[in-house]
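Obj: model holo form, ligand = pyridoxal-5'-phosphate.
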Amino acid sequence: MSESVRRPTFAEIDLDNLAFNLRSVKKFIGDDPMYMAVVKADAYGHGSGRVAKRLEKEGIDWFGVALPEEGVELRRSGIESRILCLGGFWKGQEADLIEKNLTPVIYDEQSAVLLNEAARGRNMRADIHVKIDTGMGRVGVPVEAVGDFAKSLASFSNLRVEGMMTHFASADDPEEDRFTEGQIDAFGEAQKVFAEHGIHPSILDLANSAGAVGHPRARSSMVRLGGVLYGLGDDVLPQNIELPELKPVMSLYSAIHFLKRVPEGSTLGYGRAFRTTRDSIIATIPIGYQDGYMRSLSNKASAIVRGRAVPVVGRVSMDWTLLDVTDVAGVAQGDEVTLIGGRGEVKVTAAGLAALAGTISYEVTCGINRRVSRRYVEA
Ligand SMILES: *Cc1c(COP(=O)(O)O)cnc(C)c1O
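Output (holo structure tokens):
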């Protein structure tokens, strides 16, 4: 069997749209802050190597990953820009951090001890960014503990506090604006406490996509953008304000593998969850929940065949999905199927699928499995 022939199910990643989104957001926010592209989770499923390469060419200042191992992978694909490991690191990863020039976020003393030791062993100073928990309630130095933490940092002579950051819980929700503003204020207080201890980080960053777009006070010296770069604004940005124009970066395609006519009253797929109400033409397409086309889309989502929206019928199974293509004139085996994409009236967005599945667009694109090949388009 030829290894290079694969089923015709693939995600298309439009790197020009990615670049468009960065420029569009920069125009909206301005050139003042530095821009970090968050490319964790394989760039939200878009492929971190190719995405980071293009963004580096577009002049991005920093990259953000969740895990040091994701940073190592970026270095392996030739990325030379600064990389911040947003989730910190795990014991034993200090050497990788230093050797690969990955900068960790720090929010506990044990990590500071480990990194300080590793840096001292190499006679150098390692840059760190300290994360303050101003209301996300996940990781971060609690605001009450900022003074003690700042004091303890003085004993780590091989660390340099280059940055200080926090993360918003609800920057996308106008009803939570007071909470978000409170987070910004708390961060300002923490910054003062650090200053009283003689710590003056040169990079201060608070804002994710929603914060950067919706809360001008949060822009500070750097913004950390994920979703907007991938064109996923519909369900993660505040919807009560003017927004930058964004273009989707990921489309998802497959092709009709099998077509059949079935009489009215036939049941289709697992659990017989769909029953035809007319003589129908049913297409079987090679994508399923293992690929990230979620089972919760069963009997709910639509796809596009020959420019026409067609419903998913029956349960999405592990490797196959069924479409009712009765109304598609001239439908034929091999016809392209658009699962995410399209234009104008007839389009399917990641946010639209997410709404049907009870989640957000990020989970849709992140969920498109490695089994689905990526095709990159770039002018
Ligand atoms: C994921 C993440 C971001 C990016 O969030 P978006 O909503 O995708 O812009 C920013 N900062 C931190 C700490 C993150 O974990």
